[in-house]
Amino acid sequence: MTTTITAPGLAQRLKTETAEQHARMHRLMEQARPFASRENYARFVAAQYLFQRDVVHLFADPAVKAAVPDLDQRGRDDASLADLADLGASAPQGSIASEGVAMPEALGWLYVSEGSTLGAAFLFKEAQEQLGLTAEFGARNLAAYPEGRANAWRRFVAALDNEHLDPAVHDAVITGASAAYDRFGVLLEEHFELA
Hints:
The chain is mainly alpha-helical. Helix content is 62%, strand content 0%.
């Protein structure tokens, strides 16, 4: 009897190898208390806007478009911008942190963004219950994609685990995800003045 051991797919590697950074995001969010007030929440949306702007910047890369066929349906920078307007907050300015990022690292940035969309169900509920916000006012950036969070996530994971993505570039994708987590962490620290 022959036993075949298969290496974990890219999506599983990303989940495993960025677990500590993911946990750090949870700790920063607990410190920030974004649902304690609309003012706090506006700070979160400002950080979200800048991060999403970084991610959407990557959509122009033809190699990213080829790797994620439904790219035009993803990204939440416009939703974050509309939410800031609803909240009476101005859009923050700043340079694009993903300038110079390309495939395959760009997939890591998308992994962090898409993972946050999947995980935003709890945040969306908090925005509704604590702050009275909705998918039409103030909490667009947390709302599910029209087809639902799970379906969009499954399609994205399928793109990550596509057999045409050379396993030799998987480490670079993970490096990109680490950079994206670091960027969002810095944004939270700056907008909430966390020590």
